[in-house]
Amino acid sequence: MNKKILIADDDINIIASLKFVLADEGYDIVAVTTPQAALESLNMQSIDLILLDMNFQQDTTSGAEGVQLVEAISVLELNIPIIVMTGWATIDIAVEAMQAGAKDFIQKPWKNERMLSAIDNQLALAKSDKKAQRLSQQNQLLTSQAHPDSRAGIIAQSQTMQELLATLDDLAQSDMSILLTGDNGTGKSMLAAYVHSVSSRAKHSFVPVNMGAIPESLFESEMFGHVKGAFTDAKENRIGRFEMAEQGTLFLDELANIPFAQQAKLLHVLEAQQFEAVGSSKSLHADVRIISATNSDLLSDIKNNTFRQDLYYRLNTIELRVPSLRERMEDIPALAAHFLHAFSAKYHRACPQLTEHAIIAMQQYDWPGNIRELSHMMERVLFICKKDSIDTVDLRLTGAENNDVESLDDPTLSLDEIERKTLIKRLKFHRGNATETAKSLGLSRSGYYRRLSKYELD
Hints:
It is built from 20 helices and 14 strands. The longest helix is centred in the first third of the chain and has 30 residues, at about 110-140. Among the domains are: about 5-130, Response regulator (Rossmann fold, 3-Layer(aba) Sandwich); about 150-325, P-loop containing nucleotide triphosphate hydrolases (Rossmann fold). It is an alpha/beta fold and about 450 residues long. A five-stranded parallel β-sheet has the order 2-1-3-4-5, with helices on both faces. Strands 7-8-11-6-12 form a five-stranded parallel β-sheet. A two-stranded antiparallel sheet has the order 9-10. The N and C termini lie far apart (about 65 Å).
């Protein structure tokens, strides 16, 4: 969008000259001839820079009206750069204007090169200041999370995860809204951050929001921001999450927890791509890419009138399900090792190794808490285990199918019984895939099928 400049000058010839020069440079112009009209314009629309005459009709030489207007604008705390102009330039007026809040000073008649250079500089500084403000509020409001910036940061050896990542790589090149579904703890937030990191918006902010953690009374303030004085506790301007994510990605986690009454407001912003901070009538542009996530059945929520159907279709240009950990057993050894190494480094402890029995037990476990549960388990076991290796008993798996694993150490088992149990476990691990099972056991396909027949497993 073009930058918008407000010109406040009582001389219509000056306004016409400035319009001619600035419009040619691609700026949108708003022109007023009185201080009151200038203040009204600032309250009604978003302005990027102000060119302000120091003298109006009441006083043509002292610059007092201009200084008063600069002070009035500064009180609004809009953080808009002001460049003042006067044909009666003195050092005193320049200093007074700067002290009141002006950023630069131009003498009439101006040189176009000097004026355009001043405008460019102030717009660049304002952009830098706004970015710093956004980062400051992000540091205060958002929990710091380590997110991958490439596939190398994601452990995904299983075919189902490889296929999902390939799809996300393609979608990252678009701006379409993505809805990630699946159980809690499956890594939806990590995948949302990954999409952002490989998209064209990667140089801008990735802003995650837990929708279930926002009180309904603060929803608009948190999402759209507020201006000073908008309500009792609004003691300063606040940037909302949409503005934080400008030109970047806004990740709406726990989507189904948005209060029904607030869903219409969110839908309006997504459709209009504009929003207003609480207490302000100025529309701000919402150039954000939306990724959302939920573990809820939104279609059932729609039937139960707890989620809007139109919002659902606005958010799921494409819907992707993130597999549960029990659906990607091939990834468990690498994930477990990753967490063990991470926690051993964090707590400065030696890193034990997982035994084969422990790995098989984890692959047979149902993992109701998914990757989050695996992470917590590895953190706990690092402190519980006092040996160089972690065995099944150290994992303390509840309800795990690990009896067969332990029974392999039973000295009463015959070689055939051990071989049969081992074959069953490998079949489970590879989900009945004959080629992978035979390969993992070092068997030829004919040797593998002979054993299936021998143990009546075919």
